[in-house]
Fold each of these.
Amino acid sequence: MNKLFMNLSFKLNESNSMMNMNKLNDKLMMMMIMLLMMVTMMIMMKNKLLNKSTFENQKMETMWTTFPSLIIILMTYLSIPILYMNNELKMNVMSMKVSGNQWFWNYNYMNFKYSFNSYMMLKKKFNFNLIETDNSVILPLNNEVLFILSASDVIHSWTMPSMNFKCDVIPGQINTVSIKSNKIGISFGQCSEVCGINHSFMPIKVETVTMKEFVNWIKKF
Ligand SMILES: [Cu+2]
């Protein structure tokens, strides 16, 4: 697809939640384009001043009340299930504690008693500039993981745009989000709450691997 149009749209989805959001966006955009075309056509039509001296038009008023409300009901029907689907914690295979620090992330795979820090990696030979980390989060493909987020100093925000994930990381408070990654590969995100001088140097890198590879990786620790 043309690069221009890629910039106008969302990122490619890398989680089920983002896939639903993209689908919803497509449907709503289609509806809006059709409405725009319809309204433009109505404006372009010649006004023959048929109702110039009438004070009410019951039929027309009923139409312009019911038609928009039907559209709104359709939009609600499409969006409400997705809203609640994102908040549900259903079948988590494991939980992971994410801790925001000035200025790095700490990840704790609680079920496996394994934790590590994740710092930004400086530019060497072939790194993505300012978003590459030394240790990255590894997630199993197509398995729900419960993220438990908290901070140890100031408010940070753990963000993964391609997974429809943005959660503030607040000291003294625990937030939970569950995520189901559905594409093998690497995704990048950044801290999204201004947290101090090195706010822009605490990126997030997530690698999605198959369950078998994940088990082989976690076995080592
Ligand atoms: Cu931060």
Note: Helices lie at 3-8, 16-44, 58-87, 211-219.
Amino acid sequence: MQLLLPVVGLSLSGLAYATSSSAKASATTTGYLSTSSGTLQIPDGTSCACKQLAHSLPKSVLLPGSTNYTTETVDKLWDIRADLSPACVFVPNTAAEVSEAIKIIGSCGAQFAVRGGGHMNYPGANNIDAGVLIGLTNLDTITVKNDSVEVGPGLNWYQVYSALEPYGRGCIGGRMKTIGVPGLSLIGGFHYFNNKHGYAMDNVLSYDIVIGNGTLITVNKTSHSDLFWALKGGANNYGIVTKFELQTYSVPNISTTIQVFNETNIPYFLDAVCEAAKLNDDDPIAAGMIATVTYNATTKVAQGSVLGVQEGVSIPPSQFANFTKIPAVERINNVTTLKPWADTLDSPKQMMRVQFSHRTMKPDSAVLYSIYQAWKAAVDEIADVQGLYPTFVTNVISATSVRPAKTNGVGNVWGLEEEPLVIFQLSTGWDLAQDDLRVEAWSRQLVEHLHGINKNLGIASEFIYMGDAGEWQDPYAGFPAENVARMREVRSAYDPEGVFSILSWGGFKLGL
Ligand SMILES: Cc1cc2nc3c(=O)[nH]c(=O)nc-3n(C[C@H](O)[C@H](O)[C@H](O)COP(=O)(O)OP(=O)(O)OC[C@H]3O[C@@H](n4cnc5c(N)ncnc54)[C@H](O)[C@@H]3O)c2cc1C
Ligand SMILES: *[C@@H]1O[C@H](CO)[C@@H](O)[C@H](O)[C@H]1NC(C)=O
Ligand SMILES: *[C@@H]1O[C@H](CO)[C@@H](O)[C@H](O)[C@H]1NC(C)=O
Ligand SMILES: *[C@@H]1O[C@H](CO)[C@@H](O)[C@H](O)[C@H]1NC(C)=O
Ligand SMILES: *[C@@H]1O[C@H](CO)[C@@H](O)[C@H](O)[C@H]1NC(C)=O
Ligand SMILES: *[C@@H]1O[C@H](CO)[C@@H](O)[C@H](O)[C@H]1NC(C)=O
Ligand SMILES: *[C@@H]1O[C@H](CO)[C@@H](O)[C@H](O)[C@H]1NC(C)=O
Ligand SMILES: *[C@@H]1O[C@H](CO)[C@@H](O)[C@H](O)[C@H]1NC(C)=O
Ligand SMILES: *[C@@H]1O[C@H](CO)[C@@H](O)[C@H](O)[C@H]1NC(C)=O
Ligand SMILES: *[C@@H]1O[C@H](CO)[C@@H](O)[C@H](O)[C@H]1NC(C)=O
């Protein structure tokens, strides 16, 4: 398995990867914090919160200099750019401790950040300099029920699939092993089975959430239904979720396919991606994929790859027939289960500095191919960037993936119509901090240029997915205006003081 997959942009198990030097912060109680990148001044609000947290809940507070502090502020983050130095880290052991911490943080007026699986890949989204970091590591309980599973936000998707495996059940979560449950569930959630069951957010039955005044509430279809809706795509604007209850489905087996294509066949590969987006069966077979192109600017070799998963045991999986008919460099079909499949798809933390950016379009394979070509030519222009790791990723949104939100009586904040869309994403890795601004400028300019062409062609969509976005992109601008207005009303009702807007300012925030 390991030998054939240097093609997937997001590294698979067994691939060697560089470990970064840890951010070395030295302990302080003086109001200053020395880090590898300089001296940080600790604001009064932060000092107040760290002192009170250490007084009330000493076992749950980590200070700079301890091993576990480095684990929480560096090792658990995917993007090396996101390594920062909080004044203290609060690692709650119960939802009641989250509640107490939010009361302290709010009364002190301390800035803070919240981290689940640590995969949102930009600085500030899940970590903070000189503020309080809340690391959800220890909220890791999982309870399997007949048709659902209750999951703590300290867990990743592999842990969830592992717990469901003995029951022959699965759920709509991440496609790779170590993506966190909370971030993915709160921003949307692309999974292999979206085409049948909608997105991860559509499959959350209940949330336990600590809101801005520190109150823990249970939110579901009948209790706080306005917040229930807003949490379906509303990200980290409303509070800290301490438990998710997720719908599960019978998934005793999956039929998988791994296919790798050489450059000659990339047009056909991208055409098959567009055809998959357009599928619109009344009773779809659950099937979906990770479809990427990698390009090595040194060797000039480009390769397309699809990692496809379909429910059931039919082999080869029927929903990937348009890929299967293309001549492949490698092709492996297998019948397995979700757990071992996810086990092979790791995305190691601290692998590299990474910039995401993307745009969305109607499926037009000729245009998508020209976008790929423009990307490849643009990669050549930055070929000298040390450690360059460029990947062109596609994600499909089919009409049937949108349908559950249209019919379940709840909906979600995306408000998409039942029409096929394709996301083209640039995932660009590199080694050195000195190249941060250069790679960001490159990625931003390229993706906006390509989107401009699509607008002229009349095939652009303004939809932006938080999980694939660059930090400058505004997902809310792509949601229906009435949904954004409603999200703001819900925010006013549940967090009138702006604890989760002003004090916790990182990540994709609704804004004023
Ligand atoms: C390698 C890789 C593969 C990916 N694959 C997929 C995929 O298959 N499908 C997909 O949809 N997306 C995918 N993504 C995107 C991914 O869903 C997002 O990065 C998501 O935010 C990750 O969740 P997390 O818990 O790991 O992240 P974190 O960085 O911990 O959290 C993300 C955001 O949510 C907030 N947050 C975390 N926990 C809570 C909580 N309990 N309550 C309130 N707010 C909270 C954080 O403050 C942060 O702003 C992938 C990303 C990477 C880097
Ligand atoms: C540090 O982390 C380890 C491993 O998770 C844990 O066993 C230990 O209790 C932690 N120590 C503190 C002080 O939190
Ligand atoms: C769960 O399944 C078990 C075994 O099939 C059954 O006995 C039990 O009644 C079910 N519980 C609920 C709440 O449906
Ligand atoms: C919603 O949560 C409330 C409060 O916990 C509970 O009483 C109610 O039964 C739940 N409703 C549903 C539909 O689960
Ligand atoms: C499907 O899963 C069941 C239950 O896990 C297992 O017993 C069976 O062998 C699997 N079938 C195939 C074809 O792998
Ligand atoms: C790709 O493979 C096809 C057939 O398998 C072959 O004809 C073609 O020359 C190959 N292209 C490249 C760039 O290797
Ligand atoms: C395969 O492509 C054809 C068009 O060439 C399309 O009609 C069909 O729906 C596609 N099938 C799948 C499973 O993507
Ligand atoms: C196929 O699936 C089986 C069962 O999960 C697994 O043991 C085996 O390693 C898989 N083979 C490949 C080539 O992935
Ligand atoms: C590109 O190829 C070179 C030479 O084989 C190799 O050293 C480098 O790691 C490759 N880059 C990527 C991103 O795979
Ligand atoms: C906390 O906020 C909620 C929502 O605004 C409100 O209903 C509740 O009364 C508040 N609780 C306290 C203790 O202020």
Note: Residues 1-23 have pLDDT under 50 and may be disordered.
Amino acid sequence: MPTEPPKPPTLSERLASIRQASNTLAPATAEDAAAREFVFCVADFERVRKLIYDKAGISLSPAKQDMVYSRLARRLRATGMKSFKQYLDHLEFSRGAAEWEGFVNALTTNLTSFFREPHHFPVLSQHLRAVAEKRRQISIWCCAASTGEEPYSIAITAADTFPNGGPHISVLCSDLDTSVLATAEKGVYAPDRVDKIPLEQLKRYFNKSVTPEGNVYGVKPELRQMLSFRRINLLDPVWPVRGPLDVIFCRNVMIYFDKPTQYKILARFAPMLQPDGLLFAGHSESFLHAADLFHSLGKTVYALAARRG
Ligand SMILES: C[S@@+](CC[C@H](N)C(=O)[O-])C[C@H]1O[C@@H](n2cnc3c(N)ncnc32)[C@H](O)[C@@H]1O
């Protein structure tokens, strides 16, 4: 029986074989290839991986090569560097370089939204009510606050829980990325960012303003005054956070860290929490490997494993 002649390889097969055979990272598509203005080789990617892991604990998988290229190519243009090698040499050889901030900010993923993972907020409200029976001061730390939607959702929940006045509530909002933290501090959002907030809450907690670019919604001062903002890298040896804390929100950031890094951070959270404190995690984060520190109450909410008296 005659055999069929082999089919010519498709474009993606050709790119995959280039990727395997060469030290240069092949772009995912022909458009990407045409768009690339800097050479980006395996050694460059491995250097980026090591630098961001050491600096921020972020583990980048090989699947993130295209993302890393496009985000850092912008930094090369902004700093006038001619190649990845020159850019990475600059970071490696001057540990205090101002560009470290641009590098870290470029590689963080800041996806967030108001009332993300909404099942957490009734749990928070119930907890705040229980704590208010024991203490007049409630401290919350939102440690990967991104652009602020999460800490403002916490503040709205607190304000709704105590409509007629209650305990003094403070929410410390921190993030590694200074540019998202600046957005959080401004507390001004485009209509598509607030469209999931029920109209009644939107009216109660936001001021609508008309700008040349369109409508924007600014958080009202009564909500804003609960919050304070600080850049904190969870990998730093010292956190400028005053305990004891009633609640820690640490959602959708641990997924970027490997298990040993997660464990080290959880081991530092535990002594900062009140004995009855709660830790809220992201939907795909599980702390079963830290069962000696935290136990699950379900719905990715955790309590201290050993409740101290
Ligand atoms: C995907 S966002 C999650 C935002 C929010 N917690 C939520 O769940 O909607 C992850 C955030 O973690 C921050 N981040 C990454 N590494 C960090 C680190 N080492 N220390 C503090 N924040 C970090 C990023 O800058 C980013 O804003």
Note: Residues 13-22 have pLDDT under 50 and may be disordered.
